[in-house]
Structure formats: structure tokens, C-alpha cells
Design brief:
Blueprint (H helix, E strand, L loop, with lengths): L2 H8 L5 H76 L2 H20 L2 E3 L12 E7 L8 E6 L2 E3 L2 E4 L1 E6 L6
Parallel strand pairs: 2-6
Antiparallel strand pairs: 1-4, 3-6, 4-5
Helix pairs in contact: 2-3
Length: 175
């Protein structure tokens, strides 16, 4: 015999309806508690899923930041290599010139592949967005034309990474 039936026998007949109402209340409370437990379990699982999503997003953000750092390092290395080759080409004799010119061509191909654009060129009109004027000298070139490049400027995805350091013409001065 179960506990509730035994309890009903112990009580008088007039107490039976009270016991039945308590029994119904206890069963509804039990159902409510089960529903609350199930809902808490569902919420706990959702919280765990959200935690996993946040953890994955954080890991992805770290990977993106790391890739951006590697990309920036590669671009800076390419800029430095191109500048170095330009400097070496100016210093070496004609016998080595052809070899370094070939290497310089390869570096320019790599710059193109990486979408790294050299923004400085002789004869180019001064553009403060991409040029830093170091000096102005007299020349036959038009006023504010680039007549010497001290350091190339670079753009990557339409963003200026480094302004070119240039000397511009201030036109012809009579002495």
C-alpha cells in the first residue's frame, strides 16, 4: 500500500477532502518544480552554448589580429626590401646592375601580388596625402613636381602606409 492511501485510512472520513486537496496541491507543486527544473536545465545548456560561441569568437578575433600583424609585418618587410634594393642600385657598378635590376623586378612583382602600391614617381605633382616634402630645389621641372625620391611612399588597399619623402621643384631660379 502506498503512503497516501495509508494516510487516508488513518484520517477520519471528514478529513479526506482536505487530504485530497493537499494531495492535488502537492502534485501540482511537483509538476511546477519539474517544469522549473527542466527550464533551468534548458537555460544552463543555452548558457554553455553562448559561452562556447563567445570562446570561439574570441579565438577567431585573436586569429584575425594575428593575421593582421603578420600582414603588416610582411608589408613593412617588402617596403624595406624595395627601399634597400633602390639604395643598392644607386651604389653598385654597372656589372652588378643587371642582376639587381632583375631582383628589383621580382620584388615589384611581389608588391603587385600583395596589392602594395608604390605611390612616388619622378615628375609626379606634389600630393600632400602621399608625399612628405623634405626640400625644394631649383630645376627645369614644373613647380611642385617631384625631382628626387629619398624614400618611396606606399599604399595598401587605398590606405597610405607611408608617405614618400621627396624633394620637389621650386621652378627655375635665375642667379
Amino acid at each position: 500500500m502506498d503512503y497516501l492511501t495509508e494516510l487516508q485510512k488513518l484520517l477520519k472520513e471528514e478529513d479526506a477532502p482536505v487530504l485530497d486537496s493537499h494531495l492535488e496541491l502537492s502534485q501540482s507543486q511537483l509538476k511546477l518544480m519539474e517544469a522549473i527544473y527542466k527550464r533551468n536545465t534548458d537555460i544552463s545548456m543555452q548558457v554553455e552554448e553562448i559561452y562556447d560561441i563567445i570562446k570561439d569568437a574570441d579565438q577567431n578575433a585573436n586569429e584575425v589580429a594575428s593575421a593582421a600583424r603578420r600582414e603588416r609585418l610582411l608589408l613593412e618587410s617588402l617596403m624595406s626590401l624595395n627601399d634597400l634594393l633602390g639604395d643598392v642600385l644607386l651604389v653598385l657598378s654597372d656589372t652588378h646592375f643587371e642582376h639587381l635590376e632583375a631582383i628589383s623586378g621580382k620584388v615589384e612583382e611581389i608588391l603587385d601580388i600583395c596589392n602594395l602600391e608604390i605611390t612616388t614617381a619622378l615628375g609626379q605633382r606634389l600630393d600632400p596625402r602621399i608625399h612628405e616634402v623634405v626640400a625644394a630645389e631649383s630645376s627645369d621641372e614644373p613647380v611642385e613636381a617631384v625631382i628626387r625620391i629619398l624614400e618611396h611612399g606606399y599604399e595598401y588597399r587605398e590606405k597610405v602606409l607611408r608617405k614618400g619623402k621627396v624633394i620637389v621643384s621650386k621652378g627655375w631660379e635665375q642667379q
